[in-house]
Amino acid sequence: MGDDPRHGERRRGRAERGDASGPVGPAGPGGAGHPDRAGGPGGLGRRRFLGVAAVGAAGLAAGVTAGCDATSGAGPGGGPTGGEQPDLAAERERPGNPDWRIRSAGPPDAVQGYTDKASVLPGEEFGLYVSTTAPGFRVAAYRVGWYRGAQARLVWRSGRVAGRRQRGPRLLPGTRGVRADWRRSLAVRADGWPPGAYLLRLDAEHGHQRYVPLIVRSAHATGRTVLMHAVATWQAYNAWGGYSLYRGADGAYGTRSLAVSFDRPYDTNGAGKFLVYERALVVLAERLGLPLAYTTGVDVHRDPSALRGATAALSPGHDEYWTPEQRLHVTRARDTGTNLAFLGANACFRRVRLEPGPSGALRTVVCYKTSYRDDPRFAGPHGAPPTHDFRQPPAAAPESALTGVFYEGYPTDAPYVVHSADHWLFAGTGVRRGDAFDHLVGVEYDRVTPQAPTPDRLEILAHSPLVCDGRSSHADSAYYTVPSGAGVFATGTMRWVEALMAGTREDGRDHGMDGRTGAFVTRTTENLLRAFAAGPAAKTRPAPRANVASVYGT
């Protein structure tokens, strides 16, 4: 679930909340101000702890409340255009540009921007919309990757563009959504841009900078490991203009947006959720030299063939908001042999709908949550699915049927405790049963919940005791396979991707995770990605040992 850094909850470390610069509030996440800790009628927060012993099959069948609560052209190096699949192996050998980081964000209105497409194919044009207090600005497009440790390469740079201060946020009646509705500042064609995750850095002439994220998606996924970027979740937490899917300008749940638009900048540094929950995974996957493909959850929603032939699909560290179509297409991919990895917690938790915006289709994320009965599409004659938690009725479909684990709570901070030390995922880590890695479980977690829909043959790999909101529970990492041979792994903790850089100078605020934890998570993730890249995991790796009954005594 994460948090919403512009409002009055107790702040978590700046890296976890997605703010790479700026002040850090009092330590300790959660508290009464958390986005879903809302009081009053209809404001029951999903962070309220779910006592597993008190949850029966009948309750789950009815739906379970969650736990605790103007320039374009090719850049340096050139490359193919149009929808071709460039040679990413050659791309990885290029030198990087370590100057990709923001040096000065400045005031919130110093410079900010957004694109009119969340993703593009190589060679496709997109619009960039910028507001700045400076007389001019330039844009630098950096592709994120390993690049011999530089972690990004400058692919394109614009000429000077005249700056202008654009209009303030536009609040939409009915849904309390916010749009920028700015004039387009420049058109950019992604000629020579290899597929990948990009940070467009806006460099204003007064020295301040901001990111605009963009995915250049791959033309196909066949034979590749697909990074499925969680753009709907980025937008759900985006509080630009004072509103997100969690709270309104007054900080209250009851005044939150019911629909949020991609036609506005992201708050804070412009790319906080990507930098915290996805960047380290991109860097590692690129360093391993695996055949990769890039897409977004929105593209998987739009295109039933987006994952066709993929060896694996990766859900990053915080991937909460899915459409039913995305879930269907991911499930079909699993059932035809695509391995799945959920490298966070709280994945596939909220059911959303995508609607058009002024810049095109699929530009609005709709999620009424506890007010789903007020959704005119739900109440209308065609009866659209409710936009609330997947596990809740009507149309209850708990996420554990896909992920293997069941989201339970927030906030927690606990050691990650190894259970199946001899599992192939832990090969080369040297771990023994009971070994613990401090602070790796947090700030949200999942567990295996036998009363929930759970795959038949599922193995718990880590079983980590914790306390959430004063009550004892566990977080679990789990693995299962299906008849197609696909393997599915879930970490059960939101800090997994962050931990890939723990103990290094890249880790930001690492929540106390050390280099030992970073080495363990890195080696385990390498084992996972290499195995999943080889095809259906059940054909090359030992079958999971069903141990849920022995672990939980059921």
UniProtKB/TrEMBL annotation:
- Give me the stretches of Basic and acidic residues compositional bias: 89-102
Bias-annotated ranges (Gly residues): 25-44
Q: Which residues form the N,N-dimethylformamidase beta subunit-like C-terminal domain?
A: 138-501
Q: Which Pfam families match?
A: DMFA2_C
What residue spans carry the region label Disordered?
1-46, 72-115
Designated name of the protein: N,N-dimethylformamidase beta subunit-like C-terminal domain-containing protein
**What broad taxonomic lineage does this protein's source fall under?**
Bacteria, Bacillati, Actinomycetota, Actinomycetes, Kitasatosporales
